[in-house]
Predict the structure.
Amino acid sequence: MKEIDVLRSLCVPTESKIVLLVMDGLGDLPTDGQTALERAVTPHLDRLALEGACGLTDPVARGITPGSGPSHLSLFGYDPFKYILGRGILEALGVGVLVGPNDMVARGNFATLSEGKITDRRAGRISSERNMELCRLVNSSLQSVRGIAVELTPGKEHRFVAKFSGEGLCDRLSDADPQKENKPPVGTGAQTEEAATAAAVVNAFIEEVTAVLKDQPRANTILLRGFSKHPTIPTFKELYKLKAAAIANYPMYRGLAKLAGMDILDVGPDISDLFDTLDRHYADYDFFYMHVKRTDSAGEDGDMEAKTKAIEKTDGFIPRILHHNPEVLAVTSDHSTPCLMKAHSWHPNPVIIHGRTAMPDTVTFFSERACSHGYLGRFPAVHVMALLLAHAGKLQKYGA
Amino acid sequence: MKEIDVLRSLCVPTESKIVLLVMDGLGDLPTDGQTALERAVTPHLDRLALEGACGLTDPVARGITPGSGPSHLSLFGYDPFKYILGRGILEALGVGVLVGPNDMVARGNFATLSEGKITDRRAGRISSERNMELCRLVNSSLQSVRGIAVELTPGKEHRFVAKFSGEGLCDRLSDADPQKENKPPVGTGAQTEEAATAAAVVNAFIEEVTAVLKDQPRANTILLRGFSKHPTIPTFKELYKLKAAAIANYPMYRGLAKLAGMDILDVGPDISDLFDTLDRHYADYDFFYMHVKRTDSAGEDGDMEAKTKAIEKTDGFIPRILHHNPEVLAVTSDHSTPCLMKAHSWHPNPVIIHGRTAMPDTVTFFSERACSHGYLGRFPAVHVMALLLAHAGKLQKYGA
């Protein structure tokens, strides 16, 4: 029996509540001797560390730097080597395209076609505004191709997401992108027999879009790649018998939570808005995933000052969670984004589990290095969900 | 998707350099309260521990004492439960026999045959010198058997390695050794149909060698066991896109590195010679495996004084590595060889990873017990390579 199946068999619904607060990209490396988390003044997080059990988690595996997809799946308890999200899906989630079971999405570029060759794969990096206008033009000219509904959603610069909706689509398709410039355009190819219909639809779509764009000076064709259908992922309800809600104000994280079957709650753009939403819906769910983005974006910018401030700001709202007295409050991250590296990294996430049955250990403040001495030890993030369920009294005994 | 396949898919070649310094059998147990590593004065290793990230690795699994084969394979990133080297291969590597894809090797004993029975499986433990003379005699009398080239390479006392070279050899052969004395000799048997040709070659070889040795007083026949062909192991180039070199002055470790596809560099017999070779070839490779043997042999002898000195001597050369400013310097061991036990053991290896993106933790000197408090935690040695590649910036992000 696999561990995940054992876990699933042990879950029981209870009244108890779990709040999982994810500070994206929280883990850091020292600059002038301190990480952002060590520099930040965080009395509330330190109190949680003092009272709770601490540790470090590896998002995927030692040395592996995860994107937001694998790192979140892992934190939600899905084996990140088994559940792999296509690039098209992630791009779609990032721009807020909802993807259902009959939908197939792809990442797209507007590109320049000249004398039978793709001379610019990014159409001169047109502005995001121009991109919006072009998507609107295509959407108004073309609603469906061969009975399949089609829609473009603009991203940044020359990038967009194409969504194909209808029965019988299969995503085993090669990229409709020559990858290099000054090569002729290539259509998509079906990699299995089942995908033949989808390939014909996609190629007809590219042809029709190119006809719509024929008078445009630069953005006169499109390239499509990373075709992906909605992945088959068991929901939080199926796996854990949880009624789960996501409180996140960025599309990518709302989309990832949606894949796990969480309800996506309305929330404003600020950190404080996350806690207002929690207050409003606290009675309605037994699991809350709360996502703070600012820590990650400050890390990506290499802005230690902004990262420190984002941590301090979040710290100030911890009493808003404790006020509800959840059975379990966990604070952690999906991955590290050290200011030093200005990028995601493989470094482990500090984690606190706070609740009546959490072992208070010798860790007295919240930091990467302090948590390395915690009672929870260092473990793969995919085991976090089992710990949260256990601490909330939602797991029965295994065997007699 | 398996972790090793994910890792492989993420590797990118870069200019950055990794030095992996392996002090064989380094881990120890206290004698009079201190391990050899704790007793040794090691200012340079302590500085690496202070500046770098520390931890403990289990060579194979908790409680498992590995031989040099599994412990090195694991350190090189090969699952030691999947990649298993035959005894013949290890014996061959140990005496410096190069084994190619068409070669099959076996461990051999000179033995005494009397009145149709093996009366001494070790031919009275003849001297190593006598062994060399006998191997020379056999090699000069017999160059091939049934079209297969044959060659003996002497080991210590009565032991040698037999190498069979030619097309179509299969190593699924039973041992040509009655295992007990006062039993008749046994030929090898083919364990699969494919191995029938090899079995016939081996049995004819034993018969012809016995004819050559018929007038010898004690060493008048041979026993062969552990038939092994070259194992199929992906190379460092295939797995990690590394241009790797081994700097090791013992045949076993040169042979293990050769199996992993590393270039084997010329090096003299002393510890200092390792660093001279590093200087000469630093520009030519992006991964260096350096192997110090003396720590292990001192442990095997139970000689705490010699082990301490070997550690101190190696410590003195650390600045020679740092002088080149490699992106990553890791210092660890393949397994422990406690002086108290005079043998390999299952105790974990202390490890330091030093480099710009390594987290400086609270460990301030290099020892088994200090490293148990390190930020890297305790983990299977098979994950060391992923960490080295990550710290050297040679791994792309997993997923988006």
The CA atoms of residues 5 and 214 of chain B lie 54 Å apart. The domain at 3-84+233-391 of chain B is CATH 3.40.720.10 (Alkaline Phosphatase, subunit A).
